[in-house]
Design brief:
By secondary structure, the protein is mostly helical. The protein is 48% helix and 8% strand. It has a domain of 106 residues: Orthogonal Bundle (Multidrug-efflux Transporter Regulator, Chain: A, Domain 2), CATH 1.10.1660.10. The chain is built from six helices and five strands, in the order H-H-E-E-H-H-E-E-H-H-E. The strands form two sheets. A three-stranded mixed sheet has the order 3-4-5, with no helix packed on it. A two-stranded antiparallel sheet has the order 1-2. Strand 3 and strand 4 form a beta hairpin.
């Protein structure tokens, strides 16, 4: 499959496909004329990459867990669990730090301009309701919006 065909099939810009290749996420071989050629399963691989990116994983981590991906879902084998747990813990830490920073900034604003004070965010509010990327990760399958990945299998 040529890069233009893969781009059309996945909706991903050819420049981004080349980037995935540079990052070791996508493999190609060169045809006689020097043009990139991708295997037919490259469409599925690109969809996996997009889903994992939408889940907030950097390409270096995706490169690490991509061998643990199976099926169109993607189903993740247990080998991905430690890395995914580490990434989730890291996100939780960042969320906590952002909440602390927001609270400190809101306090400063309340002191500086009491008429512009902001209420604290609703702790029970779902992050996806505020525009998080979870809906992208959940509905990443082309033609199957809203389908969620099944998770990790042991």
């Amino acid at each position: 499959m040529r890069i233009g065909d893969l781009a059309r099939e996945t909706g991903v810009n050819p420049r981004l496909l080349r980037y995935y290749e540079e990052q070791g996420l996508l493999a190609s071989h060169r045809a006689a004329g020097g043009h990139r050629r991708y295997a037919e399963d490259a469409v599925t691989t690109v969809r996996h990459i997009r889903a994992l990116l939408a889940a907030g994983l950097p390409t270096s981590v995706i490169r690490e867990v991509l061998p643990c991906v199976e099926g169109p879902g993607p189903e993740l084998e247990h080998c991905a669990a430690p890395t995914l747990r580490e990434q989730l813990d890291s996100l939780d830490g960042k969320i906590s730090a952002l909440r602390d920073a927001r609270s400190a900034l809101a306090d400063i604003l309340a002191t500086t301009a009491p008429d512009q004070a902001v209420p604290p965010p609703d702790a029970d509010q779902d992050l996806t309701a505020r525009g998080g990327s979870a809906p992208l990760a959940a509905g990443w399958l082309a033609g199957r919006p809203g389908q969620r990945a099944s998770g990790i299998r042991s």
